[in-house]
## 1
Amino acid sequence: MTKRIRAIAFIVCQSILVISLAACSGDKKQAAEEPVPVTVGNVQKVQDLETIFVSGTVSTPDSPAAVSFLVSGKVIFVGPREGDYVKGGQILASIDPTDYQLDLAAATAQTERDRVEYKRAEDEHRRMKMLYDSNSLAPNDYQKFKAAYESAEQRHDQAVALEKLSRKRLMDATLYAPASGYISKRLIEPGDTASAGRPVFEIVELDTVEANVGVPETDIHLVKIGQKVFITIPAFPKQVFEGTVRIINVSADPGTRTYMTRIRVPNPGHVIRIGMVAEAKIVGDQKISMMTLPGEAIVRDDQGATMVFVYFPDQQRVYSKRVKIGRFRGTEVEIKEGLSGDESIVIAGQDHLLDGMSVTIAPPSSEKASDKQRESAQ
């Protein structure tokens, strides 16, 4: 009797399990087939000036001024540090002037002795020449006085030149800023030994800077010397700087196949600094037609490729479509390849979609509608 009861209980449990699994499967199938609410929009077809966006770094129009001593010696003073602003003629550093002071004193004393000797020889030569001109002095005797005078004159000139050189060396023991600008490098400290010609400072001028960008070969035809360019610096996201194309290289970089282009940018506030990233918007003079979609309509597949979901009203389903995007125009992004322009595209709710999924169309939010109305008014 007990075995029979156990058998009946086992059959009942199996039946209940089968019924439960069937119910769960039906629930999942019903959930999978439940349409997902989405918002769709149309591809916008617009005309705009042909524009390219390139990026690069900020540099100076000219190489930084490398400042060095013209004489050598022990450094006893160093003034400004990196980042300090200096004016032209400002003292930057100095070396021990003692040796140059002694040299100048010796050269000055020698010049004075040679000057006295030269004046004596000059007076004697003048008298002898008067006698020679009056035929009262033999030519050979006159030539001796003339040679002595010329020799004294030569020694005097050499002493004067040596004194000038000694004075210049003493002056060169103090280093002055050749022009106004910012110290970008300080390569010497008090106690170091300065060598003649070895750079000890670098000075950069920031009144005008340059953005060095690489323009692709396919877009180089849009760039011309003197063309206006709009520059943005990520460090200053709310500012736009206006520049002018100064140089376009005639040969491409072999690694990137881009042409180096230098854009001169006025920088009166000195806010743009050397080495900053610069993004340039170069606008051509020809209008082109393009298709755009809201930026949020773009999603990426498992391989990282950009795609959109296209809505098919007859099936009430969406299917993914890979697209190639271009530049942004405000909140809109250019669609370069992948769409014909007549499709209905999912612009909201696409984050929860799968290929071939059933959807229902929801009206756009009031905020989105207001944005569209503003864009249409513009």
## 2
Amino acid sequence: MLAAYVAHAAPAGRLTIAGAFQAGDELRRVQRIAYRTQQLALAHPNFGADAQARWENDPRLQALREVIERLLVCYEWSEAFVALQLVVKPLFDELVCGQLAALSLRRGDDILGRMFGSLREDQLWHRRWSSALVAQLLASEPDNRPAIEAMIERWQPRMFGALDGLCALIGAEDVDAEAVRAEQQSLLERCGLTRPSGAALQDSAPLEAAP
């Protein structure tokens, strides 16, 4: 839903196309996970039967739930783009399709590990088109830099809290949360952005494009 909104509300046709393809990739991820869940449920009755209750009540998932619900009602396109593409997705994708994929292979679940590994290829091009757009925004209008960095600081502390909860759910000893954070910071640096302090949560101005 978040990727579809970024595509739908994009201010240019090329961005709409990139966002629409990304939304399709995200639907494929949902589909693949649903298939794998059903396979496991056939082998292990009641597997996943309490998924909704856990999503609504498990304390380790509430920070992620809050981030997603807040972002779903973020109707200013530039902030939705920055929050999703530079904060939420890089951290979530690296944990699930990087760390969890490797853990699955170590634990002998070759199907899940390879599935997440394949999906990671989609997520890498999502980062490439997003970073290319950010580079263009920074080059075309210098005032975009503080606006983007303020948006990152607005969302990053919340997503770091969500990441901590997910790592606790998976098993903190089985995943490397610092490596996940480092990968996201590397993305920001490739975009030419400074490392956010995580302190600012104030409202930020929309991005502007040069004529």
## 3
Amino acid sequence: MKVQLTDSPGSDKLRIVIRRHLQHKLRSLARKFPLVTLMGPRQSGKTTLCRATFPAKAYVSLEDPDTREYALKDPRGFLADHAKGAILDEVQRAPGLLSYLQTDIDRRPTRGRFILTGSANLALLESVTQSLAGRTALLTLLPLGLDEVRRFGRRDDSLYGLLWRGSYPAVYDRELPPNDWYAAYVGTYVERDVRQMVNVGNLLSFQTFLKMCAARAGQLLNLSALGADCGISHVTARAWVSILEASFLVHRLPPFHSHLNTRLIKAPKLHFFDSGIVCYLLGIRDPQQLRNHPLRGAIFETWAVSEIAKARLHRGLPTNLCFYRDRKGLEVDAVVEAARELIAVETKSGQTVASDFFSSLDAFAQLIATAERASPMKRILVYGGSELQHRGRATVLPWSMIDRLDWERGTLGPR
């Protein structure tokens, strides 16, 4: 749903501002906490969301050098200027401010005074947990979910068009060519954000590392093999994956192990939060190339997992996501540990449902049923076709309906 049209800086087009799912939770928590901290990748829409949700609040960007210098050199004066509260954008750029903010909040714990945003997860989270523990609520805003993409009015029904285009708002609200936008985004990320987080001596090596990670999206993360392929050590590979996680480009999906005594794989899976970045890094330049790409299935899987993560995080829920794989080769792409049951998810990019699509879900269901503490479970097959099927073995869910499933209850809602 379009809620606002505003002039887009640097463009003669109107910018579309849509309602984000997280808005309700953001407003709700601001009524309960003196601070709310909103984290997420650059360009995911944090600033737009905060300013749309709290239009009466002063807005301050700590990316601005003069403003940042003022906040760091005279934090008391800076906070006095904003005694009624403000939106403090990219607060990880001025971590020293948070200690003074703690004192200010303790003196005046008015609910909803400050809204903080940040794009560097580890740096910001460390500062927040040290200085603002118990004073702030934490939320995460990722790029658009499928239902949010639809609010931009696009009528592109192609699965491969969606995966290739990705889910960053700028690609939709300004109708920018995805290849051009992702080239600028990745280039800026490597040149700017990586340098801020860690001293990477060879940026070219880091760019190669980023591309090799994209080639491993949806696969088990083997740091030794990844490092060897990039000409770096295991230790460096681990540190660089942490950088990608800190900036919300990737996430490690942990293995499921609850209540099971079988021998399990302990390595996590590597997933990206955005399929458009994966396609760009792999050199996929149009949807047709993606349709015929050997990593099509892995890209579809990482997209589906990211959609589940968004559906939960954008409603203020923890992801509670993992996957199952044992040493015999049995694997289930995703397992959601929901409120009352497990939701086991298998992904297939094909448009035709084959009987062997259900074999992993069936075997996993038997394991869970015979576990020491059995849990109720729903089985979901997300596939590249268009027909919803309620089979005895699983719910067959078309990719275009992934946003209709309630990923906390496992039930389908209306369109």
## 4
Amino acid sequence: MLRPGEEERLREIAAAAKGYWGYDPEVVRVWAAGIRFDPPGQQTYVADSSGEPIAWAAVEPKAEVVWLGDMWVEPGWIGKGVGSLLFRRCEARARELGATRLEWEAEPNAVGFYERMGGRYLRDSEPSEWGRALPVMGLELALE
């Protein structure tokens, strides 16, 4: 879970992860500065190594759907299983909340990762602040 005072470090992780895909650094910096950690009901999960945050994700319950609003992994940790563990934690939390589906807008460069996690394309989003529609993906959550 998010610890007090970690917000700026999590913004740095998001900026580094977004920048990893080659986006304009100034646009990424401005975007990351606007990330909020206080929407009602949002729960933020942090993965760390030796006490230092290296990845994070935020989920928000919306009736029968839990929305994965953010998921970012420090570039040096991409491909090492951190993202998979974090995604599975969010999936588990969605189940705990009684959701029937986990949904998210996927960074286009991460669609393959989400497909490996079992996610499937549902629809396109409205155009984002980046001026493009994003794939909205989902994972059906069978009741256990």
